[in-house]
Specification:
This protein has 691 residues and is of the alpha+beta class. It has 4 domains: 21-191, no CATH class; 204-505, Aldolase class I (TIM Barrel, Alpha-Beta Barrel), CATH 3.20.20.70; 530-614, Golgi alpha-mannosidase II (Immunoglobulin-like), CATH 2.60.40; 630-691, no CATH class. The strands form 9 sheets. The chain has an 8-stranded parallel β-sheet. It has a 7-stranded antiparallel β-sheet with strand order 3-4-13-9-8-6-7, covered by helices on one side. Strands 2-1-5-12-11-10 form a 6-stranded antiparallel β-sheet. A hairpin with a 3-residue loop joins strand 3 (43-51) and strand 4. The protein is globular and about 85 Å long.
Length: 691
């Protein structure tokens, strides 16, 4: 298979050119790679043609049978014939928990644990998607002979593994279409009930504005601090609907002894080495326990509360002999490093997560945030990757489904063993932790979250993490969350929440006007690193029939940069569209194929465009122009516009002046500027007529 021109004009009987292989090998328990004949033997590779309406390729199935035993790492290695020249984008599992983008032009330099690879040809794209299925986990990596597919079991000495899906390779002319097609094809072939993003039920509680305790309090989280923050929200009349009681609430030996002056890095090291004594609130900081604290928080005006805990109870598992370890002993295993963590057997894992979620529910929690999900390397020698992932992820989905109706934030769970076995729950974090007051972090976060929309965002609602309303990146962060398509929750310290930063994000009751997809870069940004190339970085989403596009400048050189935005960037069909830019309040009408010029002065300049189809009647309804995703706050049927049940500024775009009437026939004052007409509906009026 080469990386040249792609013949896209194919029928269903035509398949992609067959992939040729340089090397097939297994790795013995001593770490030596043993070549395998192409005809099979210790490793058998079966290639099956796959095809959608616009994309085609192969699914690769691997089976292993090696009497001498194999290594748990690089158990099998497959090296395809690929040209080693041309641009590519890789989605890399750069830590056990998180993914980020990587750009290159030599496949020999492909990072370890690459989970998706998009190659650019002369007239289209090729995508490789390794998966975790059955027992084996496959990733991509660079090697001396080019790109390798590394297949690992996590079990030294395994002698046999039945055939299972290992990877897909497909080609198509359109990058976004190809990435969606290969993800959907993989879900169908896995046969484990893996749902696409649009097939998952989004938790109602996360449809509102929230707050998380982590950056506000970290190790000092307490009942009193939570109640003080709730009072602040009440005094500022902020519609914060839920609070997440994050890390450090539990009874963990030694945490209260950490000196105040301890650096953040040292604090994290202590946390990660700590073990859970009791699944209950710390007796010093939460007198009366978690049930009392949650009840008090709700009484203080926070309608819903979420409780954080990691898969392992605490970062280094359960304290041997502690109350939690004694209570759950039959559901735990001991790892090579001596950690006491949940068993990777289906029944035990199900009972373990039912127990912890059941406690949180009994305290009055409305949902949970389950962290540290990418911990499966800890089962080295105990369970194969696919087995442990199937057990743990189905247990989390099952327990949170039964206890909270599926209301869960999955976290630190981006390796593909988690991704392909988290079949039902909707929301998952998509970046490293938020770091306040850091320009460098903002560029890192927007890269991770946006590009992780290309893979994880196909299956999950991506959570872009908490943020502060009073840091220097606050408005940029708020815009990112608005277009993300996921939950929005802040983590401001006491006294520091800025209401004006939050107003464009929600309706007056705190409801988020959420986009329909997981935000991702536009196709013309996919093959370029926006931190190194001097160009506008664009993130796309949809809201019904409308397109949403946010434009940023995150290149290292903070000097003026120009670009273009169009409805087609958002995946909208070719046609005539009205457009509106939130920050400059500019508006216009684009003919089919038209585009808007963007000019950003530097890193602190950004834009938000809404593209709305121009109807036959010639009047496009922008919705609320004082809200980021205001197009979702109004809908039109014929000459009638129905608004959300509250005030606000409403925008219309038309070539000719437009008259607006109440349902009773009274005229509504309008302000017209160019093609943009703006109105403030009379109090209580939610239905308007256009004339």
């Amino acid at each position: 298979m080469n990386r040249g021109a792609l013949d896209i004009a194919f029928g269903r009987e035509i398949t992609m050119k067959e992939i040729q292989w340089k090397t097939l090998a297994v790795t013995d328990t001593g770490g030596t790679r043993i070549p395998v004949p192409a005809g099979g033997g210790a490793l058998t590779l079966r290639m099956v043609p796959v095809e959608t309406d616009a994309c085609r390729g192969y699914a690769g199935y691997v089976s292993l049978d090696c009497a001498g035993g194999m290594s748990g790492s690089d158990t099998a290695v497959l090296v395809p014939e690929c040209e080693d020249a041309g641009a590519y984008l890789a989605i890399v599992n750069h830590s056990p928990y998180w993914c980020r983008p990587f750009w290159g032009d030599s496949l020999r330099e492909l990072p370890a644990r690459t989970q998706e690879l998009l190659l650019e040809g002369e007239d289209g794209y090729i995508c490789w998607l390794p998966v975790c299925a059955g027992e084996l986990k496959t990733v991509l990596q660079g090697g001396a002979d080019g790109m390798e597919l590394s297949v690992s079991s996590n079990l030294d000495g395994m002698t046999r593994c039945p055939e299972q899906l290992s990877f897909l390779c497909m080609e198509g002319k359109n990058a976004s279409g190809l990435l969606h097609a290969i993800a959907k094809t993989a879900a169908g072939l896995l046969g484990n009930g893996l749902r696409m993003r649009e097939e998952r039920a989004y938790p109602e509680v996360l449809g509102y504005l929230g707050w998380c305790s982590w950056d506000a309090f970290q190790i000092r989280v307490s009942r009193d601090g939570l109640l003080e923050k709730a009072r602040e929200f009440r005094e500022k009349r902020l519609p914060v609907h839920y609070a997440i009681i994050d890390d450090m609430w539990a009874d963990v030996p030694g945490l209260n002894d950490i000196p105040e002056e301890t650096s953040f890095g040292d604090m994290v090291k202590i946390m990660h080495a700590s073990r859970l004594r009791r699944f209950e609130g710390d007796p010093v900081r939460f007198p009366g326990g978690m049930q009392s604290a949650i009840a008090a928080l709700k009484a203080a005006g926070i309608p819903a509360v979420g409780v954080w805990f990691p898969t392992t109870g605490y970062w280094s598992g359960m304290e041997p002999g502690g109350e939690a370890e004694r209570e759950l002993a039959g559901l735990l295993v001991t790892t090579e490093k001596g950690l006491r963590i949940p068993s990777p057997e289906h029944d035990c894992a199900g009972r373990y997560f039912d127990a912890l979620c059941g406690k949180a529910r009994a305290w009055g929690a409305d949902f949970v945030k389950i962290d540290n999900q990418g911990f499966h390397r800890n089962y080295r020698g105990l369970a194969a990757y696919g087995r442990s992932a199937a057990a743990i992820q189905s247990a989390i989905d099952g327990a949170t489904g039964r206890q909270f109706g599926g209301a869960v934030i999955n976290c630190m769970g981006m390796p593909n063993e988690c991704l392909f076995h988290r079949t039902q729950s909707a929301v998952c974090r998509c970046s490293d932790d938020f770091m306040p007051e850091s320009r460098e972090w903002f560029a890192k976060n927007i890269l991770q979250c946006a590009y992780n929309g290309l893979l994880q965002g196909q299956y999950q609602v991506n959570d872009w993490d908490m943020w502060w309303t009073d840091d220097e990146q606050a408005v940029k962060n708020s815009l990112c969350r608005a277009v993300s398509g996921g939950p929005i929750y802040i983590s401001d310290r006491l006294g520091r929440t800025r209401p004006e930063v939050l107003r464009p994000l929600t309706l007056s009751d705190g409801r988020i006007l959420r986009c329909d997809l997981s935000a991702a870069p536009t196709d013309d940004c996919l093959m370029h690193d926006p931190t190194k190339e001097h160009r506008v970085f664009k993130i796309r989403n949809r809201a019904g029939e409308s397109g949403i596009l946010a434009a940023f400048h995150i290149s290292a050189e903070s000097t003026p940069v120009k670009g273009f935005a169009s409805p087609e960037d958002c995946g909208l069909p070719v046609g005539s569209y009205a457009w509106y830019e939130y920050f400059t309040r500019a508006a216009g009408i684009l003919p089919a194929g038209g585009r808007v010029e963007i000019e950003l002065a530097g890193n602190d300049d950004f834009r938000l465009y809404t593209f709305v189809p121009m109807p036959a009647g010639g009047v496009a309804v922008l919705g609320r122009t004082d809200l980021f995703i205001g197009v979702s706050a109004a809908c039109r049927s014929g000459d009638t516009v129905v608004l959300a049940e509250e005030g606000g500024r409403v925008g219309l775009v038309s070539a000719a002046p437009v008259c607006v009437m109440t349902l009773a026939g009274a005229p509504v004052p309008v302000n017209r500027r160019g093609v943009l007409t703006e109105i403030i509906p009379p109090k209580g009026e939610t239905v308007l007529r256009l004339q």
